[in-house]
UniProtKB/TrEMBL annotation:
<dbReference type="Pfam" id="PF13344">
    <property type="entry name" value="Hydrolase_6"/>
</dbReference>
<dbReference type="InterPro" id="IPR006357">
    <property type="entry name" value="HAD-SF_hydro_IIA"/>
</dbReference>
<dbReference type="GO" id="GO:0016787">
    <property type="term" value="F:hydrolase activity"/>
</dbReference>
<dbReference type="InterPro" id="IPR023214">
    <property type="entry name" value="HAD_sf"/>
</dbReference>
<protein>
    <submittedName>
        <fullName>HAD-IIA family hydrolase</fullName>
    </submittedName>
</protein>
<dbReference type="Pfam" id="PF13242">
    <property type="entry name" value="Hydrolase_like"/>
</dbReference>
<keyword id="KW-0378">Hydrolase</keyword>
<dbReference type="InterPro" id="IPR036412">
    <property type="entry name" value="HAD-like_sf"/>
</dbReference>
Length: 301
């Protein structure tokens, strides 16, 4: 039985897992062919329908899409139905807010009940300052997510979390995060299923959220979190499985689970961990050693 056959719901991250910007990650389209994916994205810059169009345009199954913008809007609407909100983000974020019954305002002078902050490449100093003014006047601050970086085909760009940090620094108010790693999105996506699997590239959001929600997780090494991040991960960031990319979904589960491997060896030499054999198999062999006690260096990775 392959990994993909073991679970009845597949919860995929997008940026760094399925694609880099506008480019599919090698092997991803083929890996998802024939499955019924659920996409959970912390990127709040596009409406769910836009995300589905982008996916199908690249050859991926459309699946269902849940964004952190939806999670942020739902949190505000549940906290205070019919509230007013100043929104930093894309027009689709404002549309979602109106659909949920929130009254969208243009600036801090209208004394909004909430500031909702999601990623948009058009957000600049004026928008951040308007948010800061509203928050200092009493608005509650909800961030769609805290991802400090955003994977793209050119590398890691500035993410929403970095922009949120600027507002937090200016106001002294810490935002409530609605997206990953909070469990709201995972629990909503997995409703009605028995064996969901969370798949992502970030240990501190995708994997941490899946672990917190009590779900099995697959970490892919195609995005933000590296092999070194895995070796130094705290217990709440440790995945059930580790694959080089999404093609791992079609491998046997035990071939992806951290632990001893045939053809690779990991052992301690004083404060160092020494890895021998193929890099990925060696990483899987080294993870239990790294997680059981501190180390100073890794040789052979």
């Amino acid at each position: 039985m392959t990994l993909i056959q073991r679970y009845d719901a597949l919860l995929f991250d997008l940026d760094g897992t399925v694609w880099h910007g506008d480019v599919p990650i090698p092997g991803a389209v083929e890996a998802l062919r024939g499955c019924d994916p659920i996409y959970l994205t912390n990127n709040a810059s596009k409406a769910p329908e836009e995300v589905q169009e982008k996916l199908s345009g690249m050859g991926f199954p459309r699946g269902s899409v849940l964004t952190s913008a939806q999670a942020a809007v739902a949190l505000a609407a549940e906290t205070k139905p019919g509230a007013s909100a100043l929104i930093l983000g894309a027009d689709s974020f404002r549309h979602l807010a109106r659909e949920a019954g929130l009254r969208v305002v243009a600036g801090a002078d209208e004394r909004p009940d909430f500031v909702l902050h999601g990623h948009s490449p058009d957000t600049g100093w004026r928008q951040l300052s308007e948010a800061a003014l509203a928050i200092r006047a009493g608005a509650r601050y909800i961030a769609s997510n805290r991802d400090t970086s955003l994977p793209s085909e050119r590398g890691l760009m500035v993410g929403n979390g970095s922009m949120v940090a600027a507002v937090e620094s200016a106001t002294g108010v810490r935002a409530v995060a609605a997206g990953k790693p909070e469990t709201r999105m995972f629990e909503q996506a997995a409703r009605g299923t028995e064996r969901p699997l969370v798949i992502g590239d970030r240990l501190d959001t995708d994997i941490a959220g899946g672990v917190a929600a009590g779900m099995d997780t697959l970490h892919v090494l195609t995005g933000v979190s590296t092999a070194w991040d895995l070796l130094t991960a705290p217990p709440e960031h440790r995945p059930t499985y580790v694959a080089e990319d999404l093609r791992g979904l079609h491998m046997e589960p035990e071939d992806l689970r951290p632990g001893p491997r045939e053809g690779a060896r990991a052992y301690r030499d004083g404060d160092a961990i020494v890895i021998e054999g193929p890099a990925h198999q060696g990483l899987l062999a080294a993870l239990p050693l790294a997680w059981e006690a501190p180390f100073s260096e890794v040789r052979g990775l």
